[in-house]
Amino acid sequence: MTMKxxxxxxxxxxxxxxxxxxKSPVSLAPALRDATRLPNGTFQFKAELAKGTPFVVQASxxxxxxxxxxxxxxxxxxxxxxxAHASRYNYRFYRLQTGQGQFSNMVGYVSITLPPxxxxxxNPLAAPTNTLGKVFKDWPDGTTLNRFDxxxxxxxxxxVKFGQWTNPxxxxxxxxxxxxxxxxxxxxxxxxxGEVAVxxxxxxxASGFSIRSSPLPRPGNLxxxxxxxxxxxxxxxxxxxxKQQYVLHPxxxxxxxxxxxxxxxxxxxxxxxxxxxxxxxxLSAAEAAPDLVNNN
Length: 296
Hints:
By secondary structure, the protein is mostly beta strands. The protein contains two helices and 22 strands. It has a five-stranded antiparallel β-sheet, with no helix packed on it. A five-stranded antiparallel β-sheet has the order 8-12-9-10-11, with no helix packed on it. Strands 15-21-17-18-19 form a five-stranded antiparallel β-sheet, with no helix packed on it. A hairpin with a 2-residue loop joins β18 (245-252) and β19. It starts with a helix and ends in a 14-residue tail after the last strand. The model is unreliable at 1-26 and 285-296 (pLDDT under 50).
């Protein structure tokens, strides 16, 4: 039986071994997985890379300036990384850059110190492990977390009773916020881990009252740095954890009448919004070539 050359080409393909050429292996896009912070402060994650791929692990405290903390070549499709210096920082973020110039997703952690009494808290990282039952494990009876239901216009409480949260699977998502009550006399820390939303993040802000937080883990002036959609008639209510009282920041006639509000990473706030809007944040520097500094 004879077969024409064009039939062979269609059957085997122009890049088949029949023509002495092999197909290039499929490139595995870099990705970071399984972010976790150990009790001693060490931060760990897994890097998914094709074997033999040169890579650089980069770390940042502001999502704009990145420093190289490790250079290497992937020995397998999964590479483990531990940052023993993570205990020095309350929050830090990580990404990979490969030799081909590809960037991975960003992961990190945010550690929050909660004084006795009330705090307004937020989780700016996305992860299925950020449930109250896991993040706030072993908190005593009397611990509470209240979120504001903008439909029912009331606070909805989750509490620790008989050593368990009434809703242990509840998750605080980026952009949301809650009122947390620490019933002890001690300052205690909690840590959220997960992925940073890039290259942009958006959260809807309803008219009237709601509890909101920065959808990206960045501190700063609410409008100038964090791009909050402020308008005349809005009032921002920050909570002073040390004094256990609210501080109001009205916005009238195009300016703040009591000074511009400034947020910390992991801090939520009340907003009385005159008109509904969307709060969008963009990391303009996230895709730019970073200034690599080889230090630890």
